[in-house]
């Protein structure tokens, strides 16, 4: 099983990024997926969840209205569109299947 995140980087406050997580080694379309993040000195926290078919999504209160999780089961990929980014969104972002974690992609929001 592999989960490979990409799309992180440095962005100014108010900017946008789209993270991708490419999955392999399991039947992606059978499983719900999640994005988590871990800021320096803080515990890892859930950001967003999407059901296996994509019909159900949930978000942490601190990203509601700004982030959108989606998936393309034909491409075995889950996405996190992040808009109106704030400095407090700075963290390493991880995608997660029920049993596996990706290696993370770093997002830095700074002017």
Mind explaining what this structure looks like?
- Strands 2-10-9-4-5-6 form a six-stranded mixed β-sheet, with no helix packed on it.
- It is built from no helices and ten strands.
- The chain has strands spanning 2-6, 9-11, 17-24, 33-38, 45-50, 57-59, 67-72, 77-82, 91-96, 105-109.
- The model has no long low-confidence stretch (mean pLDDT 97).
- Strand 7 (67-72) and strand 8 form a beta hairpin.
- The N and C termini lie far apart (37 Å).
- The protein is mainly β and 111 residues long.
Which helices and strands occur, and which strands form pairs?
Layout: E1 2-6, E2 9-11, E3 17-24, E4 33-38, E5 45-50, E6 57-59, E7 67-72, E8 77-82, E9 91-96, E10 105-109
Parallel strand pairs: 2-10
Antiparallel strand pairs: 1-3, 3-8, 4-5, 4-9, 5-6, 7-8, 9-10
Q: Provide the residue-averaged pLDDT.
A: 97
**Largest sheet composition:** 6 strands, mixed
Which percent range describes the beta-strand content? over 45%
Number of contiguous helices: 0
Radius of gyration from CA coordinates: 13 Å
Please list the strands of the largest sheet in the order they lie side by side: 2-10-9-4-5-6
Backbone structural class = mainly beta
Overall form: globular
Name the helix and strand elements from N-terminus to C-terminus, one letter apiece: EEEEEEEEEE
